[in-house]
Design a protein that fits this description.
By secondary structure, the chain is α+β, with helices and mostly antiparallel strands. 34% of the residues lie in helices and 30% in strands. It has one domain: 2-Layer Sandwich (Alpha-Beta Plaits). Strands 2-3-1-4 form a 4-stranded antiparallel sheet. The mean pLDDT is 92.
Length: 101
């Protein structure tokens, strides 16, 4: 089974940084799903308003099932993050592992 890495890269409105950090901490505590191995947020070096979220899934099936996760609090937090991002700065990427490690 190939793992799947889903990434979201974006910039946030500078004045929203403190609020963003609070929201992302809460989101990390809530994100528990079958097949989600890890959820990590990185800050781009030298750009204090640029972030990248990395979701690692055990399989394509787990990745696809994650979209069906319907947790109201998680959806609220994701909407808050979306409201803090700079327009047109969001980029998504889905990577599928080719070789087992």
């Amino acid at each position: 089974m190939s793992k799947v890495l889903f990434t979201i890269q974006y910039e946030i409105i500078p004045e929203k940084r403190d609020e963003y950090l609070k929201v992302i901490r809460e989101l990390k505590n809530l994100l528990k799903a079958e097949g989600l191995e890890s959820y990590i947020v990185y800050e781009v070096k030298g750009k204090p308003v640029a972030f990248q979220e990395l979701y690692t899934f055990t399989s394509m099936e787990a990745y696809e099932a994650f979209d069906d996760l319907n947790d109201e609090r998680i959806n609220i937090l994701i909407d808050k993050i979306t409201g803090m991002t700079v327009d047109k700065s969001t980029k998504y990427n889905t990577l599928v592992q080719l070789l087992d490690q």
